[in-house]
Amino acid sequence: MTLRAAPTLWLMLLTLLLGSAWALSSPVAAQARNDDAIIYTVRKGDTLIQLARDYMVRPTDWKQVQQINRVPDPHRLPVGSKLTLPVRLLKARPASATVAAFRGQALAAAAGNAAQAVAMGQMLGEGARVTTGPASSLSLALTDGSVITLPSNSALKIGRLRKLLITDSIDYDLMLESGSVRSRVTPFRNRDDRFRLRNPVAVSAVRGTDFRTHFDAASETARSELIEGGIALRAGSNTETPLAPEFGAVIGKSGSIAVEPLLPAPQLTSGGGVQRAPAISFAVDNVPGATRYRLQIARDSGFVDIIEDMNGSDPGFRLEGLANGNYFARFTAIATSGLEGIPGTVAFRRRLATATQGAVAGEQGYIFRWVGTGDGVRRYRFQLRREDNPSFLVDEAGLTGSSIVLSELPPGRYLWRVGTTTHSAEETDTDWTAFESFALEE
User: Which 8-state DSSP code applies to residue 264?
Assistant: First the structure.
């Protein structure tokens, strides 16, 4: 009995070994190794047949998974074992990217369509391509709360933007074709979440982080700068290179990766607080090793709504025509390697400049005059009190003109001032001129 069964047993083992060798060398197995895949942990009751029925694009896709993982019985899976599942086989719910802010020439093209100007709140899906022109920017909010921002002269394509049903995990894959992008990725809630940012020479695998990526098509080189969190870089067939916070990497077209610490944030020497001059200005200290400096101005501290973006070799900046409001300025130093350093952010206020003129006598009384310069709607507040009494005799708000007439003032010495008032959703803010003196003799 045993002697008769042995040839059959050896034949079965030989067939199994040959089948395994075929699976490893077959086009299906090779494709699985090259394609993106997730690792699934088998649970109680799982079978390949059931997993394919519930979570795969086609019920017959279990056959490919069986070949890739060399599963002998598709009806039985050991609990706790690992399965490699190509993402291309898995069902998913579509996610989206929503236009959160933009300025200048920001265009978007859905898959197969011509590019058009973006609109606030516009939703983009897989296959969409977005571009920014000179002096432009675009911020996209992803379904999980992550935000990606493209500065001027950049192009990005959305490869995958979905949530996998089998693991309830996000699967984002974006391609930076040219220019730069800053990514602020929401910390992952699921261990199987995947966020990849590619460029033509490297891939950044991301886990809850704040980082910048640049790609120069002319030199075919890329740069990555990690502010906080963690990313792993891979160029070509090389192994992943982890990047620590406050470090950057230059990736050559040959796949070489050169890592160096980022330059520190420049220290502001002037320009904080209130800016009242017709042109706003900032100055920062020189940073050793810096060849250029960059200034960005935004309406929010997260720099989603960027309204200005400029850089130069001088650590001083000057900007015309900024309207009244509360803003944030962000400064970075750029190293010889091209890596952009740690950002330093300050809040500042832009206010109409107001200057008082001397009070003069008129037919109806005494005229108090002032001059406001700059853009924006002028709202003034006038106050007057006796020099020896802190209580105001006159306190007029909401004035839109440049003067006020007061009659029947008794003799005495007075102090008066004018404030420029601005309103926001959070507060009403008034910037005052210095007190002017005014004497009315008997």
Answer: P
Range of the domain at 429: 353-440
**123: Cα separation from own chain's centroid:** 17
Give pairs for 386-393: CB < 8 Å, separation 24+. 386/412, 386/413, 386/414, 386/415, 387/412, 387/413, 387/414, 387/415, 387/437, 388/413
pLDDT of amino acid 7: 43
131 with 279, same domain: the answer is no
Same domain, 368 and 318: no
β 169-184/202-216 pair status: antiparallel
Question: What DSSP state is assigned to residue 70?
Answer: T
Q: Does residue 255 share a domain with residue 171?
A: yes
- What CATH number is given to the structural domain containing 363? 2.60.40.10
By CB atoms closer than 10 A (0-12, 13-18, 19+), residue 382 is: buried
389 DSSP 8-state letter? -
Residues 225 and 250 in one domain: yes
Average pLDDT over residues 406-420: 88
Q: Are residues 99 and 150 in the same domain?
A: yes
Contact 167, 83 (CB under 8 A): no
* DSSP class of 57: S
CA distance 71 to 51: 14
The CATH number of the domain holding residue 27 is 3.10.350.10
Q: Give me the phi and psi of 292, to 5 degrees please.
A: -145, 165
> Among residues 327, 350, 373, which one ends one of the domains?
350
What's the predicted TM-score (pTM) here? 0.73
Distance, C-alpha 223 to centroid of its chain = 16
Q: What is the DSSP letter of 59?
A: G
Size of the chain in residues: 442
DSSP line for 188-209 = PSSTT-EEEEEETTEEEEEEEE
Q: How many domains does the chain have?
A: 4
The average pLDDT across 157-186 equals: 93
For residue 353, the model assigns a pLDDT of 62
User: Which one of 350, 366, 400 terminates a domain?
Assistant: 350
pLDDT in tens, 363-401: 888 999 888 765 555 678 899 999 999 999 999 988 888
